[in-house]
Amino acid sequence: SRPQPAVNFADRGMSLEAEINASNAYYLATNQAVIHKKPTPIQLVKVDYPKRSAAVVREAYFRRPSTTDYNGIYHGYYIDFDAKETKNVTSFPLKNFHQHQIDHLAACLKQGGICFALIKFTRLTAYYLLPASHLITAWQKQAQGGKHSIPLATLKQVGIPVQLGLHPRLQYLSAVDQLIARQKGVNHE
Amino acid sequence: SRPQPAVNFADRGMSLEAEINASNAYYLATNQAVIHKKPTPIQLVKVDYPKRSAAVVREAYFRRPSTTDYNGIYHGYYIDFDAKETKNVTSFPLKNFHQHQIDHLAACLKQGGICFALIKFTRLTAYYLLPASHLITAWQKQAQGGKHSIPLATLKQVGIPVQLGLHPRLQYLSAVDQLIARQKGVNHE
Ligand SMILES: [Mg+2]
Ligand SMILES: [Mg+2]
């Protein structure tokens, strides 16, 4: 059989975060949205300040982020989401989330934000936008003896598929448009 | 003369960032807004992964942030701002800003965000919210031979004073309410 074009091999190995960052750079350059990845929080312990050169961090530790990966603004809407990859092929495990992230999404949702998880099934090269409302419900049910994962079949029902294209490759703002349309009239003026 | 209450001495030395963080914690706890400081971006060079303990950063450098200090959501509005302190007593020097920050504020403003600088005159214990539109204009004029600072008198005219109170001490959302009222009908649905 003929080999796939080289670009597909490259894309296949691209992390979801790298794909989203590329989309965000495109959306920013084309004045469509301003959405950035938040830096990883670091606990500084020892910093050297050498003369005539830049400060050097000599001891520091990674802290667990208290919020989500991404936020920003799109068409006047506050956008907030976390990116999650799974190698599973039939469901998305909820253990990928932490209580802090769920609380943060719930708080932003309450303020009228457009909040979701952007989930990539790496082995299927399939992407879904899962509205935070559904994620929060599944999370709460889990504590009451509910499932520890969201079946792919459920994601196909309540989620919004994210399409791949050329510019940008990961066209997630189209899925966001659909989420906004769903939420409109519910909690946005 | 009688000494001031101890709390005032403590507050006097509090950095603007610490004051804003305290306000944000209060606003979050009381479900009024979800606004966070973004972590400082760090360029990692060397990270050790010792067995049975946490990863340790052994060499890293501070990167200049490409956006602003704070963003989040309040009443459905995207909020984006930078905090700046000055020891000056008659004007605010524009050199406190970088081109990246101005570009970021301009891009967020274009998307309908509520964008501003929160300026503290440390020697006056005076705080002003300067709308991004005015900041951007002053910045652009500077490149065309304009002033390198914004006079306090101008800030009193075009800015919105931020009041101190008890809970939270720095009541900056009241100033944000006034900025929203100004912008309403201009670029928010
Ligand atoms: Mg993530
Ligand atoms: Mg600052």
TrEMBL record, chains A, B:
It comes from the Bacteria. The record marks 84 as: Transition state stabilizer. It comes from Limosilactobacillus ingluviei. Mg(2+) binds at residues 67, 69, 82, 101. GO terms for biological process: chromosome segregation; DNA recombination; DNA repair. Belongs to the RecU family. This is Holliday junction resolvase RecU. GO terms for cellular component: cytoplasm. Its main location: cytoplasm. It holds the Pfam family RecU. It is found in: Cytoplasm. Binds 1 Mg(2+) ion per subunit. Keywords: Cytoplasm, DNA damage, DNA recombination, DNA repair, Endonuclease, Hydrolase, Magnesium, Metal-binding, Nuclease. It catalyses: Endonucleolytic cleavage at a junction such as a reciprocal single-stranded crossover between two homologous DNA duplexes (Holliday junction). GO terms for molecular function: crossover junction DNA endonuclease activity; magnesium ion binding; nucleic acid binding. Its cofactor is Mg(2+). Endonuclease that resolves Holliday junction intermediates in genetic recombination. Cleaves mobile four-strand junctions by introducing symmetrical nicks in paired strands. Promotes annealing of linear ssDNA with homologous dsDNA. Required for DNA repair, homologous recombination and chromosome segregation. Its EC number is 3.1.21.10. The keyword tRNA-binding does not apply.
